[in-house]
Amino acid sequence: MAVDKEAELDELIRSAGGEEVEEDTGGGLDIATLLMVTRRSLPWMVLLIGLGLGAAWLYLRYTPPVYQSSSTLKIDQKTQAGVLGLEGVGKAADTRQTAKNLAGEVELIKSNLIYQRLRDSLNLDVNYYTEGTVLASELYKTSPFRVAYRLKDNRLYNRKINLNFLDSTRFRLSYQEGTQEVTNEYRFGQPINTPQLELTVYRNGRFDAEQTKPNYYFIVNDDAAMSRYFDENLVVEIINPEANTIGISFKDHNPLKAHDIVNKIDTLYLQEKLAKNSLASQQTLAFLESQLGENSSKLQQAEQALQDFVRRNKTYDVRSDVSGITEKMAELQKEREELRRKLGALAEVAGVVDENRVLVREGATLEESVPALARLENDQISQQVAVLNDQQADLNRLLESYRPTTTAVQLRQEALNYTRRSIRNLLRGAQQLLQSEMADLDKVQRELDARLNQLPEKETELARLRRPFELYEKSYLMLMDKKVEFSIAKAGTTPDFQILAPASMPLGPISPVRLMVYAIGLATGIVLGLGLVGTRYMLHNTVTNIRELERSTPAPVLGVVPSYDKEKLAVSKLIVDKNPKSAISEAIRSIRTNLEFMSSSRKTKRMISITSTISGEGKTFVAVNLGGIIALSDQRVIILDLDMRKPKVNLAFEAENTKGVSTILINRHSIDECIQKTSIPTLDFISAGPTPPNPSELILHPEFDQMLAYLQQTYDVVIIDTPPVGLVTDGILIMRKVDIPIYIVRADYSKKSFLKNINKLVRTGGFSKLTTILNDARAGGMYGYGYGYGYGYGYGYGTGYGYYEETKAPTGLLARLRRRFS
């Protein structure tokens, strides 16, 4: 019998804990859970949106606005040279007139030259400020005082120098020197001379003797700081290259200052451009004048020398003999070059002959393979080279079949060497002949040189005198032409700098844009809120409401046990007898009613097991109070604690656990000795007893079935509190023996993965009557139970309003908001 019991238990364990069923009844997006998570996250979403809008407001409150002023310039050159028909002359002047290189103009506007003049003309080297609660405001053209300074210590540049009015004639000046603060009182107009600075503070027309409360300070900027300031805020860009338009914009926290800077840049640029054009014209004319004067002096000297030569020699042409000799010498030079070419060809042929290879390439002639033969024009040498080529080819073919030591190969090798020696002799003879001809040409060349040297040196001197004269004459005429062209172009050129759009006065800040900042804050809050909802939904891995329970398991739901908030229970207790009209009592009555419909054949004797996946899901609490509710309906009920590892039923009734199921199964006590009474006359219980070392083996004893049979005969309802089936396997066999197995799922505690145990038990374990109860459910997870009929089979626990006792809901604003969002 024990073997059969163990086999049955093993089969149940395998069937209940086997392979997972692939069907996923809870896959996809759970709209109900998403809405529940969204409702619970609404306060946080509102808070995040509020934080986003608050951050946007703080950013706008403590971020100084930035204003931008802009203007548009058109850079052009109008010239009258085209009208005079001189548009083709003076290409350099035309290049300057067109002014197409707008990139250079952009660099000019952003140069230190414009920056320095801008700083001096607008007095931007000193910035005046008044300190506010959080931000400081620049007093551009509105400062009630001005300073004249000379800083001796460069460390005072770009640093705050505080100034506070004491009255209409005195002020306090303070600044930081190292780690110490230097503070003194002075009068307006009094020269201040310290080792660090020389300073004089003057009042101006905006000074008001009543305005002594604000704290003022000023900053003296050095050149580097001003350059950085202009570079960071000035934008110069080419708008339309074809129209030669340039856009200038400047950003600053003071709109008037931005407007004045752009307006002044336009003025300074136009002034600089006009000055640059005028200077360029003056420099060009001065250069032409200097070159003309110098060239005229040299031309006069050349003319005078040529005139003296004519007077002395009374002749102007001795060129005929010289030209004849020059022509002969040129012909001799050509012949010498031809002889040198042939000598080079001889050397090239000699080098080719010495090579042990076939000279003629396949498909080519001898002259094509050895071009030097064509230059020699010697048929004898060409014939011998052809014979050499044939002998070399014949030898190469023979070497492919015979060794070099064979007689045939050696005979052909000797013939080849003989032919090569003959060619060398021919080449040597031709070379001697060419050298002889070269010597004859050299002799003729020396004779012509002697004749040329015998001629009077008049022509040589005349040619020497003519060369500078002609050179200076051409240069003088060219410079005169350039001067005329430039003068005409300059006379007809008018600089045209148009301000298409003058500096605009900023009507509003470009940054920060209030609507955009608030939109970003709102969007950030919404995104964070949605992210929170998504994160909480993704991390939501517990069963929250009855929808999730129904959706994830095919087992029917007997009912829902709401949360018990009246008191904090350290352990499970019987509470239905103390609060018979509470919501939790009515919920358990609904479960009792549904159990009546679940009982097969309306039998009066029932055995109910209550289990869960892990400890802490409330199976003992449900077992005790369900037993209490059934006992209050005049039925005899006994609760059997079979969780012998962690017994809790005795704690619920505040009883001892010295004897119980474990002692009954080992025959130490009888069943009647272990039955204990409760405050309800018809409700008894048997505790688990002392924890045995082998709880699973005790359940397999025949005494266990005998105990159940005895209790079922004595009592109307037997409720068995089994161990959690997710931790141990004791409860699986017990669930086979009962009429109604109940599985407890605790809201916001039981993992969704626990529901797979229920699915395994129903599908593979054969527990077709397995039912579930959602325990510790909040108001949001109890749909269908608050009014009218209950869930599933019988009447609900809340028929009608005011049927059961409830605590009065708080009426405060926070409580109403909490109820609204829940």
From TrEMBL:
Top-level EC class: transferase
TM regions (residue ranges): 42-60, 515-539
Keywords: ATP-binding, Coiled coil, Kinase, Membrane, Nucleotide-binding, Transferase, Transmembrane, Transmembrane helix, Tyrosine-protein kinase
Pfam families found in the cross-reference section: AAA_31, GNVR
Domain Tyrosine-protein kinase G-rich: 460-537
Keyword Transferase: yes
AAA domain: residues covered: 606-743
EC code(s) of this entry: 2.7.10.2
InterPro entries noted in UniProt: AAA_dom, Bact_polysacc_biosynth/exp, GNVR, P-loop_NTPase, Wzc-like_C
Gene3D superfamilies assigned to the protein according to its UniProt record, in alphabetical order: P-loop containing nucleotide triphosphate hydrolases
Coiled-coil annotated spans: 285-349, 427-461
CDD domains tied to this protein: BY-kinase
Catalytic activity: L-tyrosyl-[protein] + ATP = O-phospho-L-tyrosyl-[protein] + ADP + H(+)
Transmembrane recorded as keyword: yes
Family note: Belongs to the CpsD/CapB family.
PANTHER family: FERRIC ENTEROBACTIN TRANSPORT PROTEIN FEPE (PTHR32309:SF13), TYROSINE-PROTEIN KINASE (PTHR32309)
Record-given protein name: non-specific protein-tyrosine kinase
Organism annotation: Hymenobacter koreensis
